[in-house]
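Re-running AAA family ATPase to confirm reproducibility after the cluster update. Everything else is unchanged from the original entry.
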Amino acid sequence: MASSDGFYLDYFGLDRRPFTLLPDPGFMYWSPLHKRGYSVLQFGIMSCAPITVLTGEIGAGKTTLIQHLLSEMEQSITVGLISNAQGGRGELLQWVLHALGLPIEADASYVQIFRALQDFLVAEYAEGRRVVLIFDEAQNLTVEGLEEIRMLTNINSNTDELIQLVLVGQPELRDMVLDPKMRQLTQRVAASFHLERMDESSVKAYIRHRMKTAGGSGDEFTEEACKQIFTQTRGVPRLVNQFCDFALLYAWTNEAEKVDEEVVEQVVKDGVFFGGNSLEKELTV
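Result of re-run:
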């Protein structure tokens, strides 16, 4: 067997793992869908949209797009990132103040917390700055939480936006926003996009891109292997990463020159790829 130093990295001449599950803007693959999704995010920020919504399946690349957006945000914009915010009235505002680095009195009332946020927004506006709040995993917010978020946009003046909201989440978020009971929130959404799964050709290009970015040639996966990987993952980027990581490991242990149809079939047969189980359940619901 080949040397275990670096597992399959040395074997394929790679300088890093090409298919880690952690969001990494350095590996960003700009599929047509991701380009459009990112353009909508940029449009929402640049056009001072009160609320921008980005939705997509688990592992579709939403967080990676947000991280890329943060890395390119103008210096004149103050950003607060809130992940998995939950809670009832008042608690959400505490998440917001914490994300903006503002102190919170232990016994502060709702009115005091709201006033602290309002004073901060006005002060930032006076300095020529805008504030953008990004809520990641926003599908976990309650209807009450979404309504409280909408109320934040009331702070804006008639002509200028003091605060902009970006809601990022799974498809359930889109359903929540479009609910007739959330009509007032929907009316504030000026930009929105839903990230679909990648198609077969995008999966092939995605795999090639990540292999080349990691120091490979991009030809380590055969055409048929890519086709089967698309079938197994349904084009979900995170699942493609999981499967390809196992495929490279299996190719290394088999001393195969490439990840071919036989390697992919072995990964499937051994049942080490759990992502396919969730897809099967989804398709049978």
